[in-house]
Amino acid sequence: MKKLKDILKDYFPILGLVLVAVIFAILTKGKLIKLSTLQSMLSTVMLTALVSIGSVFVFGSGCFDMSMGGTLCMSTVVGCYAGIATGNVVVMLLACLAVSLLLNILKALFASYVEVPLFIVTIVLGSILSALVLVIMGKETTIYLSNAVRKLPELTPNGLTILNLVVLVLYFGLCVVLFNYTRLGREVKLLGGNPVTFRQTGLNPVRVKLLAFIVAAVGVALAAFVLLMRTRTAGASTGGSMGTDVMVALVLGGMPLTGGPRSRISAGLIGAATITILNTGLTILGLSTAVIQIFRAIVFLGVVYVASMTYRTKLLPR
């Protein structure tokens, strides 16, 4: 039987989510739980959760990806241009998926064959993607789906909510099955927990990393598509803070960024909800963007420090 300490450790992310929600509901005098605020937060949670859930596979395998925001931005911009050129929603979705897959496969190959820490490669890649988006857009600062050759369907707020929920539930369900009940999930956790043991068992790390990045690419593409359907615009600043939001979300969700057997798909969803409530609550309180970033950084470092105390001594030699 599990000890009380271990049980509390398993449910700590959920308790943290509830605590953050209660605290900010009180501090904002109920503004946080107004219907309009909840609808806005739901849309934000969907985007962060879609990217974070897929990123569990990447971080879980021991890969530290810092270019998720750039990947989302590029996918959204190219998808928007495809939608404008064709007036077809399916083509727009496929364009988002193609760009996301291409970039993530490239990152998987770097992680497998290039003897440079992946987080350095992805930092550089993020800068390159930002520059490429500016080149692609030229003098335009924002592109609009309203300029499509054929009118693209517009969803009502309720329709957008249904789309968000359907996409998130299906993708979350797929990732839960892949991560918890298939060979891929077991190999991801083993590779992240101890790559030396993984190689000694004769397993192929290239295959695992490639599949992990492909699963994450689907999440980014879905997030880009949902974002386009909601805002109907794209620009160089799209998804600018997504990389940081995902890392903070995973940590708040109870997942070590070193990956391994403590990785959980639920961390992406719980963490996305927590970071969204935190950001929204601080914004409602009237704090500036700079102060919010400082507060987020303090929370992030605090959670990482506390979490590391629970698993660092249990890691096997790498």
Our count of helices gives 12
Strand order of the largest sheet: 1-2
Helix-strand string:
HHHHHEHHHHEHHH
* Number of strand segments: 2
Overall mean confidence score, pLDDT: 86
Give an overview of the whole structure:
With 318 residues, the chain is an all-alpha fold. The protein contains twelve helices and two strands; from the N terminus they run αααααβααααβααα. A two-stranded antiparallel ribbon has the order 1-2. Helix 3 (68-86) packs antiparallel against helix 4. The protein is globular. 41% of the residues are buried.
Helices and strands in order:
Layout: H1 4-27, H2 35-60, H3 68-86, H4 89-113, H5 118-137, E1 142-144, H6 157-181, H7 183-193, H8 195-200, H9 205-231, E2 233-235, H10 242-252, H11 266-284, H12 289-311
Antiparallel strand pairs: 1-2
Helix pairs in contact: 1-11, 2-6, 2-7, 2-9, 2-10, 2-11, 3-4, 3-5, 3-9, 3-10, 4-9, 6-7, 6-9, 7-9, 10-11
Question: How would you summarize this macromolecular structure in one to three sentences?
Answer:
The chain is mostly helical. The protein has 12 helices and 2 strands, in the order αααααβααααβααα.
